[in-house]
Write a structure and sequence with these properties.
- The complex is a heterodimer of chains A (about 290) and B (about 325).
- In chain A, about 75% of the residues lie in helices and about 5% in strands.
- Chain A has about 290 residues and is mostly helical.
- Chain A has one domain: ABC transporter involved in vitamin B12 uptake, BtuC.
- A two-stranded antiparallel sheet of chain A has the order 1-2.
- In chain A, strand 1 (about 130) and strand 2 (about 135) form a beta hairpin.
- The longest helix of chain A is centred in the N-terminal third of the chain and has 32 residues, at about 1-35.
- Chain B has one domain.
- Helix content of chain B is about 75%, strand content about 0%.
- Chain B has helices at about 5-25, 30-55, 60-80, 85-105, 110-130, 155-180, 185-195, 195-200, 205-230, 235-240, 240-255, 260-280, 285-300, 305-315; strands spanning about 140, 235.
- A two-stranded antiparallel ribbon of chain B has the order 1-2.
- The relative contact order of chain B is 0.18.
- Classes of the chains: A mainly alpha (about 290), B mainly alpha (about 325).
- At the A-B interface, helix 4, helix 9 and helix 11 of A face helix 5, helix 11 and helix 13 of B.
Chain lengths: ~290, ~325
């Protein structure tokens, strides 16, 4: 019993790292430009299929494929920002919700036409690592490690480089940042690009251990909302912690309740946290 | 000011009455099916407009009330043998009650936080119904064919359902005009412009918002019962599609947020456009992408919607297009 609990806890936490990575992009975009990016899930799905195509058709190692996808998804993020978000950045938030959802519809629409909604998977394995009672799939360990590295890189970028500091300045107060001659349009585009890139990377990592369809992104997107609220909306580093909490919950709840109750608990918790502490468990700061 | 002298009042009602009445007069089954979907979206969009258009609170969980009210009504019909009319009312009341409870809590949140919470409510409700034994869990509920005997056979039952839907739609549209021109509605519009200022001027914002939420939730409950009764079954996947919530939002935006005629025209236009895209061989697989493109263009270039644009462009039409 104890061994089983431990196993599902570790399993959930490893998954939690990847969840956290996915939510980080959402949280960053919210923190910097107060936009809830409803195209997040669709972009994750794009990341999944990007990895799949590079893996099956070019025979690349999936991790190399994910690495190659990073700059492409950054550019895609710039494109989405320029086309759909820039014009309405100061409009009521309904506009940005609908604009990003429109992007979501277009991506999913084209994706469905190309790939249909059938199940795909990346047939790739790194064996299993045994540690005492635990048997951990290598792909999950690698994904957790990769998520940790990317988070560290994001932290260094935000706190140690000039563009990163500009992003934090704009998140803190856009008007004041502009007065300090920070080009806010470029900074917003950059943040949106990074948010998109994080989503695509998380999508790519997920393909190494779960099968997926073009519609899979929406489930991860809903989880990302929960995580963002757990870790504090607009606090990208808190998102990693939120991801770990959610992952642990997903590991542990099935021991006491049937698996199908997990989302009930998750989303009830989500609404409750929004009500009691809307700034999240860690507080909102970028 | 007598409302029936105002073209802004009777024009939308006439539109619904004529649109819905044609099928009743001609008695064509295919026309009825088409108009059922159309009127359903008109009523859903108009009822959401009471909350979203007037108070400016974006609700992604409108379909929760459709689903939960529909489940309640359908449960009463299929398991307890209720007649359709009281069951539909019970579905509406269940939705309204839920909205009152939720509203007291959730409407304290503002702006995007409220929108996020409604997404959470939608997911939680779907997951809950998926697991809730009396509602049949993931397989849902079915109606026994014998139920139709009470209405004089299945065709009569379907026509009754349709007639009730037309009446419900008329009530929603009439009510949204009445609310918009009442003291209560002016308070809601003030909340949309600036909630703090409205409260300073004496609008009881929490009560007003909750009441608007309850009113906008009552009708989807009725419509849900009618829709699932017509279909003969109900299951969680159909009842709580976040997608449908957003489609209704798109319809309102298309026609004009906060107008009476807007949601009607928006729903009709979107529904017909989707029907066309789905059946045309060229766009069939890309219909979602085209709908997305249309939405993006509206949001970016005519955020006031079709009616809002007309009203701004041609001020003399304002008396006609409320």
């Amino acid at each position: 019993m104890l061994a089983q609990t431990l196993a599902s806890l570790v399993d959930g936490i490893l998954l939690g790292f990847v969840y956290g990575l996915a939510a980080m992009g959402l949280s960053l975009i919210w923190g910097v430009m107060r936009v809830i990016n409803l195209s997040h899930g669709a972009i994750m799905a794009l990341g999944m299929f990007g990895t799949y195509l590079l893996f099956t058709h070019l025979g690349l190692n999936p991790y190399l494929a994910i690495l190659l996808m990073a700059p492409a998804s950054l550019l895609f993020g710039f494109l989405v920002y320029g086309v759909a978000v820039h014009r309405i950045i100061n409009a009521p938030y309904l506009s940005s919700l609908l604009a990003t959802f429109a992007v979501n519809m277009m991506v999913i629409g084209i994706g469905t036409a190309v790939f249909t909604t059938s199940l795909y998977n990346v047939d790739f394995s790194l064996g299993t690592v045994r540690a005492g009672v635990l048997a951990l799939p290598g792909t999950r360990l690698t994904a957790a490690l990769a998520a940790l590295l990317i988070t560290a890189a994001l932290y260094l970028f935000l706190y140690r480089t000039r563009p990163g500091k500009a992003i934090r300045a704009v998140a803190n107060n856009r008007a004041a940042a502009e007065l300090m001659s920070i080009p806010s349009a470029q900074v917003l585009a950059l943040s949106f690009g990074i948010g998109t890139m994080l989503a695509a990377l998380a999508g790519g990592l997920i393909t190494t251990f779960f099968p997926f369809t073009i519609l899979s992104g929406s489930g991860y997107q809903s989880k990302s909302f929960v995580i963002c609220v757990l870790g504090g909306l607009g606090n990208p580093l808190g998102a990693l912690l939120g991801g770990l909490i959610l992952g642990a919950m997903e590991g542990l709840i099935p021991i006491v309740l049937p698996v199908s109750w997990v989302p009930v608990v998750e989303f009830t918790l989500f609404v409750l946290i929004l009500l009691i502490r809307p700034s999240g468990l860690l507080g909102a700061r970028t | 000011m007598k409302p029936w002298r105002q073209p802004g009042f009777w024009l939308p009602l006439l539109l619904v009455l004529v649109g819905g009445g044609v099928a009743l007069v001609l008695r064509k089954d295919t026309l009825r099916e088409m108009m059922f979907t159309l009127l359903m979206y008109v009523a859903l969009a108009s009822s959401l407009n009471i909350l979203m258009g007037y108070t400016g609170y974006v609700n992604f969980g409108h379909i929760v009330f459709f689903g939960l009210g529909g489940y309640t009504g359908f449960y009463l019909i299929s398991q307890h043998g209720w007649h359709l009319i009281p069951a539909a009312l019970a579905g509406g009341l269940a939705s309204a009650l839920l909205a009152a409870l939720l509203g007291l809590a959730v409407l304290r949140l503002r702006g995007a936080y409220f929108a996020l919470a409604t997404i959470g409510i939608n997911e939680a409700a779907r997951a809950f119904v998926n697991n809730f034994g009396p509602f049949g869990g993931p397989t849902g509920l079915f109606v026994n064919f014998a139920v139709y005997r009470e209405y004089g056979g299945a065709p009569q039952a379907l026509w009754l359902t349709y007639t009730l839907l037309v009446i419900t739609t008329l009530i929603v549209v009439g009510l949204s005009y009445w609310i918009k021109n009442s003291r209560f509605g002016l308070g809601l519009l003030a909340i949309r412009e600036d909630e703090d200022a409205a409260m300073v001027m004496g609008v009881r914002a929490p009560t007003a918002k909750t009441l608007a939420y309850v009113v906008s939730a009552f009708f989807p409950g009725i419509i849900g019962t009618l829709f699932f009764f017509k279909n003969g079954n109900v299951e969680p996947g159909d009842a709580f599609r976040l997608h449908m919530s957003i489609e209704v939002l798109v319809m309102i935006m298309l026609g004009g947020n906060g107008t009476i005629l807007g949601p009607i025209l928006g729903a009709a236009a979107y529904e017909r456009l989707r029907g066309y895209l789905l059946t045309s061989p060229l766009f069939k697989s890309l219909h979602l992408a085209f709908a997305g493109l249309a939405l993006l263009l509206i949001v970016l270039f005519i955020p006031a919607g079709f009616i809002g644009w007309l009203r701004r462009r041609f001020p003399f039409l304002r008396r006609w297009l409320e």
